[in-house]
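Issue: copy button drops trailing tokens. Both records pasted manually instead:
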Amino acid sequence: MKNTLTIGVILIVLGAAVLGWRQFSYTTTEKVLQIGPIVATAEKEHTINFPAILGWILVAGGVGVILVGRKK
């Protein structure tokens, strides 16, 4: 029962995080040009968008796991 409660709470927290932050951005440094010892780099920003339905599915799944764990 304790494991299902923990998993359910983690799923609910992840779902709330997805609903709160709809996108995640990170920056990478890429080598653009290299001529001998001279190197030119560029920073490129990448964005990952999370759909709202994913957050609701995680929250519902967490509630479902908690309810199933309580019945046992």
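Record 2 (pasted manually too):
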Amino acid sequence: MSTAPLLSAIVASGCAASAASWREGAVGPQIDVFYATDRRMHSPPAEPCSAGPIRSPQVQFGGERGGHEAALWAAQLKNDVHFEGVIVVYSWPSRGSRWSYLADLKNADWTTPHLVDFLDTLASGANGAPIHLFAHSMGGRPMLSALHGLAVQRREGPPPRFGQIIFAAPDVDAEVFRQLMPPVLALAERVTLYTASDLALRISGWLLAHPRAGDSGSGLVLVNGMDTVDVTAVDDSRMRHDYFLENERVLADIFQLLTYAAPPQRRFRLFGVQLHGFLVWQFRS
């Protein structure tokens, strides 16, 4: 009997992704999204006693350590790429505001050991079903650190294995990304970096004095064994940061990656360009 694939999505933060097509009044389909979180739970207000059926209080979580915009974009991603498996969101304490950017950086580091445990538990309970991992923006920071920890830590059995690992516009120091990625490659069937000339990440790099891995305008991040896909030529959005939700060509490419595990040379509309001894994949305009 075949088993359904899984997709674990790490929530974006700092510059929160917007699920554009569902926020313009369109009624989207009902999609089940599971989640794990280390956010602090907010106690719902007590309701006065009244006759009638008992309603379960709505569970809410705040931006403190301890908004589930992530659930919305995860549901849209599942719908847009026709993903047939279960989708699980790991939501960490991001405040989702540009004014809380530095606090989000600290919280991204704080959540990393919790994310290590979550990924290890998820992999051990999958019973052979492939697990695909997707991280966007600052969510790439704890994802990369957690995967690196799983790859290098001493353990009795083999490290967990994943299917596709996708980093979209990661807000991660480019040099740190290059340093931590090589051991991570052994955990996945394929690792893909989507990058663009990203204004939001350009600002982040200016604030932190180091270029970000998801900003191709500061120099492409190239790692032997990892696929780098530059979407700049086909993304005409203002910030070039949320293309994984808004750009049909990128969504089609993610579909081919998740559904068929297709390498870039077999994916529609991609072509390779030699750069410093590496192949960089770009979209045909």
